Amino acid sequence: MENVLISNLQRFSTKDGPGIRTTVFFKGCPLRCKWCHNPETHLTVSEIMYNRENCTLCGRCVRACPKGAVTIENDTVITDTNKCTICKRCTDECYYNAREVVGKGLTFDEICDVLERDMAFYSESGGGATFSGGECLMFPQMLTKLLKFCKARRIHTAVDTSGFAAWEVFEKILPYTDLFLYDIKAFSPDVHKEVTGVDNALIWENLEKLCSLGANVNLRLPVIEGCNADLSGIEETAKKAASFGIKKVNILPYHDMGKYKYTKLGRDYDSNSMATPSDEKLEEIKTIFKNHAFTDIKIGG
User: At 98, which CATH number?
Assistant: First the structure.
């Protein structure tokens, strides 16, 4: 039976679209944003996350591993990812929840079962289902099936995307998507490539096409000092988005609440080069969007 890797299936969310929502986080993303607070969604394979604070160095995980992938070195547990097969024996043997597997294969029916259980909350709050990631558009077949399922049951649908996908994918999902939460990481192609690893030409092309076809788009603008907080670039973003007829934007100031996940994954995180914009600057950014006829401007998710 077909399944897809999900890093999290978050119920009762209030930050991923209107009302109370169930957010499905697909595991896999073509971008590598420097500030990403969900690094566990980068890869399209399951991974082991290790929490040193919970670990007593009892060695049960070492003894449990059939591949010899787990060792204790310098008072910490090391996992050799080249040997690890994610058999989960180490996590099963860990009494202290120091080890966990991120990325669970779920079938279409398993995801739909959760969505159906939450339908009462959607109807009472004007909520629904949000498909996010990572980048959910990397999985067009499963995403389209889930969106069709929601539409058949009158569940409001939102797709949270970077826009970095083939237009053909957008064409497939457009009839079943009530709201696009569309990220713009930077206006300048050079800056965008520097802070995300990819060019943004395709992202802008897809956004223009979506708007020309009447899609409901809520722009989402992460603002990170040291990466993309240049006001001239934000001015150009607002101007271009306004020319497409977009009226809604969420301004998302940088935070480092996901920093601990990098440690748990054994990855580096350069927090010293990034900072949260001041309240004064956020107000300046709000004014920029007001001046370009945006009518729904919010700071935060």
Answer: 3.30.70.20
Supply the pTM of this predicted model: 0.94
Same domain assignment for residues 155 and 232: yes
Provide the pLDDT confidence category of residue 2 given band limits of 50, 70 and 90.
confident
Same domain, 222 and 96: no
Burial of 58 (0-12, 13-18, 19+ CB in 10 A): middle
Residue 80 identity (one-letter amino acid):
D
* Alpha helices, H only, the chain: 60-64, 89-93, 108-117, 119-125, 140-152, 167-173, 189-196, 201-212, 231-243, 259-265, 279-291
Within a 10 A sphere around the Cβ of 66, how many other Cβ atoms?
10
Domain identity same for 289 and 145? yes
Q: Collapsing DSSP states into helix, strand and coil, what is residue 3? A: strand
DSSP structure class, residue 17: S
Range of the domain at 153: 3-43+104-299
Give Cα separations from 145 to 11, 107, 176 (angstroms). Answer: 20, 11, 10
